[in-house]
Structure formats: structure tokens, C-alpha cells
Amino acid sequence: MQASITKRRLAPEWLLIGYLWCCYALNHADRQVVYTLFPALQKQFGYSDAVLGLNGALFLWVYGLCSPFAGIAGDRFSKTRLIVISLAVWSSFTVLSGLSPNGTFLLVCRAMLGISECLYMPAAYALMAAAHGPETRSKAIGIFGTSQLVGVAIGGSLSGFVADHLHWRASFWLLGATGILFAWPLTRFFRKMPESFRREGGAERATAKAFVGLFRIPSLRVVTLFVSVATFGLFLVYTWLPTFLYDKFHFGLSRAGFEASVFPQIGSGLGLLVGTSLADRGYRRTRRARFWVIAVACFAAAPSLFVLGASNQMFLTRFAAISFGFFSGCIFGNQAAAAFDVVPPPLRSSTVGVLNLLGATVSGFGPFLGGLARRTIGVDRLMAFTGLLYLIAGVVVIYGTLRHFARDHKLSEDT
Predict the structure, then answer these.
(1) How many whole angstroms separate alpha carbon 66 and alpha carbon 138?
(2) Residue 8 included in any domain
(3) Torsion (CA) 318, 43, 364, 151 in degrees, nearest 10
(4) Which of 125, 242, 260, 343 lies at a C-alpha separation of 20 to 30 Å from 13?
(5) How many domains does the chain have?
């Protein structure tokens, strides 16, 4: 029995999730590190609030606009090679960020980080979908998604700690060097990985025309809507919650980074595991299960976001952060699997490119508008307005699923 358990733990499809998990944790740590450092960067480079927000927005806009090319590349070329190249290049720009002589150089590094990181997700999701069938796909992606939470927690907490005890530049150097070193064991695993996981079957179909054609699938348009709203809300919180707590409760950088990074991630981790398990179980009864889980999560995330911005008590703020993280986890754990339920399998990387194009481009306004709102209407009111968008998204998910899902799912299965 012990041998059977060991064998199951070492199954290559789950080892794949483990290696990709580590990559994505580094991916989000490298993104998040700059947000906790906003007060330090403002002192160092004289950034205005709007330019601080631009550090987050520029990354997301570049990431989103480059995602169509990354999605098509993931369907046409070696996914494993793209992943390794992406990891090595984004880690190098993270190191360079720590060497920034001025604020403009750091902004350029953030833009280059967006270009290099956008290659990772389409290829990684396509590998996971090839290795895991629909009965375990949400669970696999949900476990993979917890890496995002760990990465954000590490990036946010580590950067604040290092800034308080050493120097803000050291956080970039440490994370970037770790990514560069991890490229070696990752390459070794890919060389031994089962050939069936690669499944490059979409090469002939993955074209710009096919990419545009994905927008004609009504159910996928529903997915892009809730992904856009959810990523806007998530990056508004990721970007501005450390500074929001710094201003509101007068914390130091280390405490603000810890509170803003850890508690939302606790909720998100639970949401990813619970939401994806419910979706996989529900899928056996109804193919619409992932969409129903997402609709409920949209409705529940709205009041959580409102309380997060409005509460004057740290206990309620933490509770709201955990709650918002939980329902965000339910959404993000199921977004790719829901999209894969309604698109042709050979175009999975391109589909992730679609989601990243709209999700990242729209979410880039979260950091930017947060910067504009900080000293005008307030970040708390912007959170409340975003909560209304979640309610609208929930209604659209229900309507679109009832009207379009059955036809779109059948067409995807027949492809």
C-alpha cells in the first residue's frame, strides 16, 4: 500500500503540476515585490501616486497586449521551450529592476517583465490540459493556482522585510537569481516528461484568424467578462492594499506588506481548493458546473470587497481580505477549465491568450485608477464601485450559461 501511495505521488502528470507550480510562484513574487515597495520607491525616485500606479498598470497592459502572440506561439511551438525561456528572461529583468538607476529604468523593466512573463501562462495551461482530463482538470489547475498565492505572499512579505532590514534593491536580486537557477532542474524534468503531455496538435490551426475566431464563441465571451472584472478587482487589491493599510492604519512597510499579502492569500488558497473540487464533482452531474461556481463567487465577492475598503477595524479588514480571496480563488481556479469546456482543444494556448489579453489589459486600470483615487475619491470607494461590477458579472454569467453553454460545449467536443 505504501508503494502504491508513493507511486501515485510521483505520477508525471502531478510532477508537472509541481514544477509549473514553482515557476508560477516565482512569476507572481517577481510581480508583487514592487507593490510593497511603493513608499520606498516614492522616496527614492520621486514618483507621484499616478506613476506608482503606472508601475503596476504598465506591466499588465504590456502583458495583455502581447498575450495574443504568446497564445498563438504556445499552440505552434514547443511549449516546454517557451516556458524555460520565459522563466529565464523574466528573472533576468527582475535582477535588472534592482539595479535601476532611476524611475524610468524601473518602468522599462516592468514593461519587459510583462513581455517575458506573458509567454508562460498559455503554454503552461496547455500542458496541464493535455496531462489532465476534464474530470481532474479543475483540481490540477486549482493546485497549480495556489502557487500564485504563495508567490504574492512571498513577494509582498519578503520585499517589506528586506527593505526594512537591508535595502529595497536586494528583494529584486534575490528573487531574480532564484528564477535563473530554477531553470536548470525545470529543463531536466521537461526532457524526461512523457511525450503525450506535449500534444502540439494545434500547430496547423493556431493562426491570427483562428485567434480572432475564438471571440465568436458566446460562452467564451462570458468567460472573458468575468475574468476581466475579477482580475481588475484582484490587481486593485494586490497593488494598493499594502499602501492602503500603510496610510489607514499607519503600519510600517513590513507589517503592511505582511497584512496585505498573507491574509488574501489564505482565503484564495482555500477558494482554489474548495472551488475547483466543487466544480470537478459538479461536472459529473452537469457540464455547466464550473460556470455555476463562478456565478456564486462573483455575487459573494462583491460585499467582501466593500467591507475590505470600508472597515476601520483590523479584525474585519482581515476577515474581508480572507473572504475576498476565497471567492477570487473560486473564480480563478475555474476560469481556464471553464474556457476549455467551450473551445476546440487544439486552440487551448490561444484561448489563454484571449483571457490574458482582456483580463490583463482591463486589470491594468486597477493599479492606475487606484493611484488616481488615492488622494481624490479614495481607494475604499473604488473598491465599492468594483464590487458593483462583480454583481453585474454574476448576472451575465447566469444568463450566458443558460443561453449559450449547451451549444458551445457540444461544438467543442465535436472538434
Answers:
(1) 26
(2) no
(3) -50
(4) 343
(5) 1
Residue found under cell 477558494: 271
Measure Cα distances from 43 to 29, 46, 162, 388 in Å: 22, 5, 16, 35
In a domain, 2, yes or no: no
* Contact between residue 271 and residue 328 where contact means Cβ atoms under 8 Å apart: yes
Q: DSSP labels for 75-93?
A: HHS-HHHHHHHHHHHHHHH
Neighbours of 194 (CB within 10 A): 11
User: What does the alpha-carbon distance between residue 75 and residue 381 come to, in Å, rounded to a whole number?
Assistant: 41
* pLDDT category of residue 196 using cuts at 50, 70 and 90: low
Backbone angles phi, psi at 199, to 5 degrees: 35, 75
**Cα distances (angstroms) measured from residue 244 to each of 132, 365, 398:** 40, 17, 33
| Residue pair 271/149 in contact by the 8 Å Cβ criterion | no
Query: What CATH number did the domain enclosing 377 receive?
Result: 1.20.1250.20
Q: Give this prediction's pTM.
A: 0.73
- The one-character DSSP state at 161 is H
